[in-house]
Specification:
There is one protein chain. The chain is α+β, with helices and mostly antiparallel strands. The protein folds into two domains: 95 residues, Diaminopimelate Epimerase, Chain A, domain 1 (Roll), CATH 3.10.310.10; 146 residues, Diaminopimelate Epimerase, Chain A, domain 1. The protein is 20% helix and 42% strand. It has a 17-stranded mixed β-sheet that branches. α3 packs antiparallel against α5. It starts with a strand and ends with a strand. One of its GO terms (molecular function) is isomerase activity.
Length: 280
């Protein structure tokens, strides 16, 4: 029998029972991919991360597939593996996308993201609106694919109500947000004054998934803003989760800072709320 220790972490959590639940397995040796995927399915949370002792490479899985990169999983892993750090501390983690630096300031972990790269979307606003289940007149700005670690379609809409109305289907989202780098992913967001509301969708061949805490999507919004003329430095407070149309939902708060050199950092409060052991 093999035992695997895990930590239950809430990422982007302003309160203990808020944010997005992430499970982090801290292993003596890294389990193989089928075992990791089976454990991720067993845990049933949005994302499950694995890190081995004396290594900095993080493997991340949803319940259905491997993820090449995840900001929230990296922040959760930093909290699970360095819970007693006080003050300012730095930690570098690796994923299949390369190395990322993480920094702790007080209760908040920050992740330094790659420089944003953009490319135009192939579909016009009418096609895009139809695929996302919103009105074409709700789309403002120019939708772009942005890549700060993962390439995602970033679509700004007029209001929080427009964000709430989004209802993409599998076939339409897969064509709209198709990427050679990862599964189709799209961020639909609004900026009402200083209040940014985000919903984040991804899909495989069978289903559309909605995330409670899309840290990479938040970084890509900052990349979209700079590509659209926003001058640096600036900071963002992005809310996600309460807009998800479920009986039970909860708020995630994602903080983004862009410095004068246009470097993007994504951060949030990350709280361990429990843990245990799985025996196989």
């Amino acid at each position: 029998m093999t035992s695997y220790s895990f930590h239950l972490i809430n990422a982007f959590a302003e309160r203990r029972l808020s944010g997005n639940p992430i499970v982090v397995f801290t292993c003596e040796e890294m389990p193989d991919e089928p075992t990791r995927q089976a454990l991720a399915f067993q845990m049933g949370v949005a994302e499950t991360a694995f890190i081995a002792a004396h290594d900095t490479h993080i493997h991340v899985h949803s319940t259905q597939y491997t993820l090449p990169f995840s900001v929230q999983a990296m922040l959760a892993t930093a909290e699970a593996s360095h819970p007693d750090e006080i003050g300012l501390a730095a930690q570098a983690f690796k994923t299949s996308q390369g190395q990322t630096w993480l920094l702790r300031q007080a209760d908040r972990w920050w992740s330094q993201l790659a420089t944003a790269h953009t490319r135009p979307a192939r579909h016009n606003n009418l096609e895009m609106a139809s695929a996302l289940g919103i009105a074409a007149t709700d789309i403002i700005g120019t939708p772009l694919f942005v890549d700060c670690g993962l390439e995602q379609l970033i679509v700004q809409v007029r209001s929080q109500q427009s964000v709430l109305q989004a209802n993409p289907q599998v076939n339409s989202l897969s064509k709209l947000a198709e990427s050679s780098k990862n599964l189709p992913q799209a961020a639909v967001w609004s900026n009402d004054g200083d209040h940014i509301t985000l919903r984040f969708f991804s899909c495989d061949a069978f289903q559309v998934y909605e995330d409670f805490g899309a840290g990479t999507g938040a970084a890509n919004i900052a990349g979209w803003m700079m590509a659209s003329g926003q001058s640096a430095p600036f900071s963002l407070r992005i809310e996600q989760g309460l807009t998800i149309q479920r009986l039970v939902s909860r708020l995630s708060v994602i903080h983004v800072e862009v410095d004068a050199q246009r470097n993007i950092r994504v951060g949030g409060n990350v709280r361990r709320v429990g843990g245990g052991v799985i025996e196989l």
